[in-house]
Each structure stands twice: as C-alpha cells, then as structure tokens.
Amino acid sequence: MDNQTTEQPAQSDPIVENTTDQSQTSVLSGEQTQNNFQDLIPEEYRGEKSLSNFKDMNDFVKSYLSAQKIVGADKIPVPNKFATEDDWKAVFTKLGAPEKPEDYKYSFKEGELDKDLVASFNVEAHRLGLLPQQAESLIKYYNDFAEGNAIQNEEKAAETRLHTENELKREFGPQYTKRLDQAKRLASSTLGNDFLENTLLADGSRLGDNLNVVKAFSNLAEKLSEDEVVKGDSSSYMTANEIEKEINSLTEEGSPYWIKTHPNHQKAVQEVFKLRELLNG
User: Fold this and answer.
1) For the chain, how are helix, strand and coil distributed in percent, rounded to 5?
2) Which of 41, 67, 85, 174 has its CA 20 to 30 A from that of 93?
3) What does R_g of the chain's alpha carbons equal in angstroms?
4) Would you tell me the crossing angle of helices 132-172 and 211-223 to the nearest 10 degrees?
5) What pTM was estimated for this model as a whole?
6) Residue-range domain boundaries for the chain
7) How far is CA 54 from the centre of its chain?
8) 56-81 per-position pLDDT tens digit
9) Helix (H) or strand (E) holding 69
C-alpha cells in the first residue's frame, strides 16, 4: 500500500475583528475624548450668543447654578426718573437705612462729638437715606477735618502772637509791659475778651494778637493815660529815665554793688541786671 501523505490544509491565522467601539478603545488606551460642547446644544438653540462662551458642560453647570441663586435672591427694583421720595425711601430702607434719625448709632467716645450738631446731621442723613456706615464715615471725615483745622489755627495764632510780642518789644523798649497792659485794659473794656480772642482777621490772626490792632489800642491808651480804665497800677511801671536813675543809684561808687564782701552785694548785682534787661527790652 502506497504511503500517501495527506497534506493538511494550511490553517490561516485567525482574524480578530476590531469590534470595540471608539469610546471603549479610548477608555482602554487611557485617552479621553473631548466632545465639542456646541454639538451638545440642540440645533434650534445653537445660534444663541449667550451660549457661545461655554467651552464645556462644567462651565455651563456653574453658570446655571449661579443664575438660580440670583433668581432666588431678594431683589430691589431701581426707581426710574418718575420715582417719588417715598419710592426712594423704600429702597434705602431695604438697603439698611434706619427708620428714624435717632436710630443712627456711632462708635465715637462720649463727648467727642457735639450732641446738637450730631442730632442735626442725623436728620439730614435720614432724609438723604444714608446707611449707618455711610453716616459714620462722613462724621469721622468732618471730625478729622475740623481737628486738623483747629490745630493749624492754634499754630497760626501762636506764631502771630510771638511775632506781635517781638515787634512790640522792639518798638516800645522798656515801656513794653506798661503799654501792652494799658492796651489790653482798654481793648477788654471796649470790645470784651471773647470778641478779641474769637474774632479772626483776613490774615488768619486773632484780633487780640494783631500787631496793628494792639498798637492802635496802645496809642489810644497813651492819650487816655489818666483814665482809670487804662491807668492801672502806674507805680509798677518805670520810664527809661527812671530805670537809668535807679541803675546809677545802685552802682554809685562805694555802694554794695562794688563790695563783694557786703551782705547786700549779690542782691544789688541781681537788681541791676534786671533793670538793664528791662531797659533793653
């Protein structure tokens, strides 16, 4: 019997068909498919401009939730040009304006603000519909501004007073104290101290510190020197000649002024020194 070799038909490699869809392949391969958000929008709404800014569903959901919160919030309509004061008052009340002027409360210390001024301000603040924090901010600004002005005015007054005193000392010399005292007496008796202290001139100086005003009262007092109003205690004043005579008397030869061992030596030296200071203004 012949040996017959039966050849087995060659078996081809099995063909594995790729039946996995694209989305499965993407998941298995670790790749993520990014869908175009615009493709998810129904055809009839794709032309809406308000939807063109969304890149993905996450942005859309955030926007939707935010809109829902706004819809649920308490809304205040803005009055138009025909609105009355009552319409605006209703808006201010909803925003937090107090019902009465007396309801404004501030954090300032007791006595830091003028009560009458604050009460007047509260009435106007309530009429304008100011919120409590706005009212307090305005009062604080005004208070700081007023304090700054007060400090500047005091500095200006002190500077003017010093200038006036120096000029009068230079002009009046040893008669400075006498003439200034007489001028004060006359000014106080005619105008009053309050008027002199609280009246401000155009240059910012007080009336009682103004050089020309003081000199005018001094000159007038000189003419009325015998009047009891300006005379005062004349015995406490000395003229330049009287001062010189006193100095000469204290420093005459043989006086304690020249004898260091004399018990009145130091007293005489001090007295002469004071008189010479007075003489030189």
Assistant:
1) 65, 0, 35
2) 67
3) 49
4) 50
5) 0.40
6) 85-146, 161-236, 238-281
7) 48
8) 888 888 877 776 665 555 667 777 78
9) helix 57-72
